[in-house]
Amino acid sequence: xxxxxxxxxxxxxxxxxxxxxxxxxxxxxxxxxxxxxxxxxxxxxxxxxxxxxxxxxxxxxxxxxxxxxxxx
Amino acid sequence: xxxxxxxxxxxxxxxxxxxxxxxxxxxxxxxxxxxxxxxxxxxxxxxxxxxxxxxxxxxxxxxxxxxxxxxxxxxxxxxxxxxxxxxxxxxxxxxxxxxxxxxxxxxxxxxxxxxxxxxxxxxxxxxxxxxxxxxxxxxxxxxxxxxxxxxxxxxxxxxxxxxxxxxxxxxxx
Lengths: 72, 173
What we know:
The complex is a heterodimer.
Chain A: H1 4-16, H2 29-38, H3 45-60, H4 64-71
Chain B: H1 3-8, H2 12-34, H3 37-53, H4 64-82, H5 99-116, H6 120-131, H7 136-143, H8 147-167
């Protein structure tokens, strides 16, 4: 699947993105704890809109459930 | 009761143990995608927060690391989608006025520009497969797809990159 030109692109990308340091230098637990304390869990309005829209579509076109299930 | 079961039930001590155990792996995975340590730390915290929120959906017989990695990948993808394509991904090299270096730098910028214009899913698959050389199965697991689909994404990305680079008048050395 990889042609000679593709190998050049792969090489160019490797040069462009040098290895990153993947080591984590601090404990993130305090930040996670702060976030857990600070944020409630609200459901955004667009999630509700999406649920409503999907429910209406499936109600009026039940055959789409099969199409949807096939693509899952 | 084992750790994962206690976490699924919402025990904060169990979650703390899991955070300490997996935060390094999650961070390493995210930083490979976003290439910025500061952003990777923020996304790791967000991932861990989402993991706790979604604890009731977690089945204790599943692999916690793989589940966490999938949540982290989705967050990194969202980050790449929000990010402007013009934004630089790597640090600026030191100024150099030699014509060869200027040309190399310009070519590098064009390749980076073309890479940033790729759809986020293609960027992630390409970065992890070609630059980081992660196994296709591992990438597929994190993206919630098959290894074949990942290979196809990488193939598509390389084809798009090649076309864009030709359009920009760049031929990779």
